[in-house]
Amino acid sequence: MLLNDLTNKQIKEISSVIAPKLVNHPAFMFYCKNGKNREKFIEDYFNYFLHKWNKKELVFSNENHDIIISLIDVNSYHSKDKGLGAAKLKKYKNPYANVSFHQGTVAYLTEIVAPANIETKIMTVYSTLNYADEVDKLVDEVTAIANENNFMIVYETFSKKSNEIMSKKGFETAYEKQFSGTQYFETVMTYYKNDMSEPVKLIESFKPIVITDEPEENKENNKKTSE
């Protein structure tokens, strides 16, 4: 379901519920290498980013908040962190730096794989394979909204385990490489319902207008000039 206009209380509740379930999520293992601090970091991460995304971006979750799927506009994905909860997040110096580095990389890759003239949103799935069936349903909801509103989805993940599932839903792998000398593989997949070759087809079929004679007005002016 799409989360709309969350209150501060709801954001705190969702953050506290999902944090312990993502301790072994590849992205958070990269962000926060200290396992003892990771759960608290994840909670503060969502306390900040859910506030940031609330009302401006698209965020989905299941009823029990075991899963969060974010769809963030490419132009605001890697921006300065400020506002409610930002100072608390920045206290995690190394994890915070890792988040910023990763976001910058994803934003750069997105600019490469997504056409500039197509609205694009970056999708991240915050979940483990324990909730694969529910993730499957939520992704269907996400792609339906993308189809209806005609935007491209760029799905990024540190794990290859969901690639086959996403491929069956119409996502295509655009980039895959081991990330920054770590054990994780940064994978970027794209989803877009329309044929991106359509503008090319239109250009190829375009027939230029050939003017074989002067307009009547010009003929009259030329006649007066010659007189």
Shape: globular
Judged by helices, strands and strand pairing, the structural class is alpha+beta
Give the strand tally.
6
Number of helical runs?
9
First-last Cα distance = 78 Å
**Strand arrangement across the biggest beta sheet:** 1-2-3-4-6-5
Strand content: 15-25%
Rounded to the nearest angstrom, the radius of gyration is: 24 Å
Overall mean pLDDT score?
85
- Poorly predicted residue ranges: 198-212
Order of helices and strands: HHHEEHHEHEHEEHH
User: How many strands, what sense, and barrel or not for the largest sheet?
Assistant: 6 strands, mixed
> Helix share of residues?
40-55%
Write the layout of secondary structure elements.
Layout: H1 8-18, H2 26-31, H3 35-53, E1 58-61, E2 68-73, H4 86-90, H5 93-113, E3 120-126, H6 132-149, E4 152-157, H7 163-168, E5 172-178, E6 185-191, H8 198-205, H9 216-226
Helix pairs in contact: 1-3
Explain how this protein is built.
With 227 residues, the protein is of the alpha+beta class. 46% of the residues lie in helices and 16% in strands. It has helices spanning 8-18, 26-31, 35-53, 86-90, 93-113, 132-149, 163-168, 198-205, 216-226, and strands at 58-61, 68-73, 120-126, 152-157, 172-178, 185-191. A six-stranded mixed sheet has the order 1-2-3-4-6-5, sandwiched between helices.
Describe the structure in brief.
With 227 residues, this protein is an alpha+beta fold.
Distinctive features:
globular, six-stranded mixed β-sheet, 9 helices, about 45% helix, alpha+beta, about 230 residues
